[in-house]
Amino acid sequence: MSKEEVVARLKEKRKLQRKLAKRREKPVFRRYLSWRFWKFERREYWRKPKGNDSKMRLQLKGYPPIVKVGYGTPAELRGLHPSGLVPVRVSSVRDLEGLDPEKHIVVIASTVGLRKRLALVGEARARGFKVANG
User: Fold this and answer.
1) Residue span of the structural domain in which 8 resides
2) What are phi and psi of 107, to 5 degrees?
3) Secondary structure class of 104 (helix, strand, coil)
4) Quick count: other Cβ atoms within 10 Å of Cβ 1?
5) With DSSP H G I counted as helix, E B as strand and the rest as coil, what are the percentages for the chain, rounded to 5?
6) 4 shares a domain with 16
7) How far apart are CA 2 and CA 36, in angstroms?
8) Residue 88 contacts residue 107 (beta carbons within 8 Å)
9) Residues 125, 90: one domain?
10) How far is residue 25's CA from residue 67's CA, in Å, rounded to a whole number?
11) Residue 4 within a domain
């Protein structure tokens, strides 16, 4: 590999790391009044505020942000693992063929039993893959 190729690859990697860091900067979207009522605090999932006089719906200062399109992940990062690799579901050793350890991260299927899973993890690590759930 020439020096120019190495420099180009490093620049691309740094660019990806910056974008991944930006992806993590999203605020925590809280359900309206989850800070006030215990029944909502236990259910931290997002629900859009729909009340007529809801201060959060009106996006007034001092209230948590609501989900909007602008908070979306950049298109080239969508579906990537937090490490920046493309997750690939694997259920046998044959599925590892044709994959690149520099681009892919292995996710072992939930239907794989323990004996086969141990063999798969060993083979994947021997080939240089990262295993997300192994």
Assistant:
1) 1-25
2) -120, 115
3) strand
4) 6
5) 35, 10, 55
6) yes
7) 60
8) yes
9) yes
10) 14
11) yes
What does DSSP assign to residue 126? H
pLDDT in tens, 26-50: 888 888 888 888 888 777 788 999 9
Phi and psi for 31 in degrees, rounded to 5?
A: -70, 145
CA 11 to chain CA centroid, nearest Å: 22
CA distance linking residue 57 with residue 64, whole number of Å: 10
Say if residues 107 and 87 touch (Cβ distance below 8 Å): yes
- The dihedrals phi and psi of 74, each to the nearest 5 degrees, come to -55, 145
The partner residues of 94 in beta bridges, in order of sequence, read: none
Place of tokens 């050793």: 93
Q: What is the DSSP string of 85-97?
A: PEEEEESSGGGGT
pLDDT in tens, 46-103: 899 999 999 999 999 999 999 999 888 888 888 889 888 999 999 999 999 999 999 9
